[in-house]
Structure formats: C-alpha cells, structure tokens
Amino acid sequence: MEQMYSVRMRAAEGGPHEKGGFHISGGEALVQKGSLEETAKLLLKKALAHSRGEADFIQLVVEKVEAESLVRLDPLPVSTDEVQSVEEGRQRAASFLRSLSISDRAITAGMELLKSSTNLRGAAVLSALTGQRLDPVKDRGIRVTRMGWNEEGFNQWCAQYPRLVSPRIAEAIALATKVAHAPFLAAELCWSDDPEYVTGYVSSRKTGYVRITQLKEKGSLSGGRIFYVMDHVDLPSLQAYLEETPVWIG
Ligand code: AMP
After folding, report:
1. What is the pTM of this model?
2. Do residues 248 and 72 make contact, with C-beta atoms less than 8 angstroms apart?
C-alpha cells in the first residue's frame, strides 16, 4: 500500500481561531500519496470559496500516517427523510434520537446548542443522559481527523447512491462512519453552519446515516455537530480515537 497522509485545513476571518477569528471552514482527509496534492488543492479551494465569509487565516497541515494502524469500516447506509419545514425536521431528528435512548433533556440541550452556535469549529460532546457538555474547550469542540475513502469503495458507493454524490456528502459520511464506531458513542446530530445548506442528519450504527432535508432556515449561520455519549465515557480515549485513529472507509 502507498504511503498514507492525513490532511487538515482550518480557515478563519479576522485572524486565527485562537486569537478570536471567526470560523469560516474546515476539512480533513486521509489519502494515499498519489492524491495528496489534489486533496490539498481542494481543501484550499474550500477555504477560499465559502459562503460564511472571506478567510484571512488558512492553516493546512499534512502528516504521514502509518498504514499498519489503519481501521477499515464500511460506510454507514444512507436514508433520506423528506420534511416540509424546519420544525418538522427537528421533530423527526428528536424522534430518531429518542429511539437511540437519548434523553429529552439531552435532545433539547443539543438542539439549543446548535441553534445558538455560529462559531463552533468542532463537535460538542454531550452526555446522552443529562445533556451536560463534556468537552473542555467550548468554542473549539473536538475535531475528527484521519478518515478517508478508499477509491474502490468510494466508486462502489457512488454507484449505489448516484443522486447523493457530492464532496460535501462524501466527507460527512466518512466523518459520521468514523464517529458512529467510536467507543461510548450513542448518536450524532448535525446541521451545517453553511448558510446555504439546510439538510442535516442523525447518525448511529443502529440507524445508519439519516439525512433530514430541513434542519435549519436558509441564511442562518448557526450549526455544528453534537456527539452524544454514554454516561461512563472515558473522554481521553474517545478523543484519542476521534483525533488519531486512521479510518479507511469503503
Ligand atoms: P460542515 O459539515 O463542514 O458544514 O460543518 C458543520 C459543523 O460541523 C462545523 O461548524 C463544526 O462545528 C462541525 N464539524 C465540521 N467538521 C468537523 C470535524 N471534522 N470534526 C468535528 N466537527 C466537525
């Protein structure tokens, strides 16, 4: 197997995130050496053409990853729930989360956090029982990295879901698949912070990746990701898996 690389990008306006810059865009990939240049170019393009604003800080980090530590996972199966309004979408999301034993308190806390977050760079980790936020750095959250599609698996996936093929969905499925297999993980809830994109999802190993066609109003900058975890979570080992374990999808 060719040498593998992790590529990470983060972009902000008004300086770097840690100096108060406004989050514009982020992206991560795990690729073989032959795709490295193209991937770096695509991530740079994503940072430069984003509807959240004009980045003046862009960081691109490339790191070698040892292939022996690679975990291989099949992508989560995808389904789509067509809804007619944001309210209906959020009710559907809540009922999926309830079916995954997420408490009503935790569902409300997750929805309120996503509604009010306009500058969250990673995911917020919430107790599935109490809804309490558990990750330490509130505006950063935990950023999942080191996941990517193997080319053959990706081509098969495109043939299976031709109407869904887009870089945005491919990236989100790689992320949701890695997250769904994390230790202590009960469910994920996401809607994008991109004002143009209103479809979101609930995902887990049990439900698969359930797209919900409206989870926020067009034009809104709010959004992010919530990772609901079980009460006996060991946060350092969850974080180590999400940030460090390389996952190869497909
Ligand atoms: P996007 O799916 O790129 O529109 O991102 C929407 C939101 O999801 C971001 O504002 C972050 O809060 C969160 N997010 C995006 N990428 C990641 C990631 N790799 N790990 C954790 N959270 C992420």
Report:
1. 0.96
2. yes
Distance CA 224, CA 145 (A): 16
Output the tens digit of pLDDT for each of the chain's 250 residues. Answer: 799 999 999 999 999 999 999 999 999 999 999 999 999 999 999 999 888 999 999 999 999 999 888 999 999 999 999 999 999 999 999 999 999 999 999 999 999 999 999 889 899 999 999 999 999 877 789 999 999 999 999 999 999 999 999 989 999 999 999 999 999 999 999 999 999 999 999 999 999 999 999 999 999 999 999 999 999 999 999 999 999 999 999 9
Longest dimension (CA), the chain: 48
How far apart (Å, rounded) are the C-alpha atoms in residues 3 and 23?
31
Question: Which residue's C-alpha comes closest to atom 12 of ligand 1?
Answer: 224
Ligand 1: centre distance to CA 195 (Å): 13
Structure token pair of residue 23: 């989050």
Q: Which of 150, 145, 168, 157 is nearest to 32 (CA)?
A: 150
Nearest atom of ligand 1 to the alpha carbon of 144 = 20
What sections of 121-223 are H helices per DSSP? Answer: 151-160, 167-180
How many angstroms does the Cα of residue 80 sit away from the middle of ligand 1?
A: 20
